[in-house]
Amino acid sequence: MQKPSSSYGTSMLTTLAGSKTPDVFYVQDNYFKQYASLGYLLDITEYYNKSKMRLRYMAVDKGGGGK
To answer: Is the pLDDT of residue 10 over 80?
Structure first.
């Protein structure tokens, strides 16, 4: 779903609060903790640890995942 970049974050908050949410979407840095605290993000650490995939550069939130 294409959103204007200037209002993407607030637009996505509205979309995520609704019943038809996307499975995958871009999260702007300044909205990450808010999305996480609202339960809109899935912690994939367990899936990553069980997989054989290893990413050279993986962003890690050392602040508790916004919770």
So the answer is: yes
User: What is d(CA 67, CA 64) in angstroms, rounded to the nearest whole number?
Assistant: 6
* Reported pTM: 0.59
To which residue do tokens 């899935």 refer? 42
CA-to-CA distance for 14 and 54, rounded, in angstroms?
Answer: 34
Q: Where are the domains of the chain?
A: 1-67
Coil vs helix vs strand at 37:
helix
- Long-range (24+ apart) CB contacts under 8 A made by 22-26 are 25/1
- Which of 61, 1, 57 minimizes the C-alpha distance to 34? 61
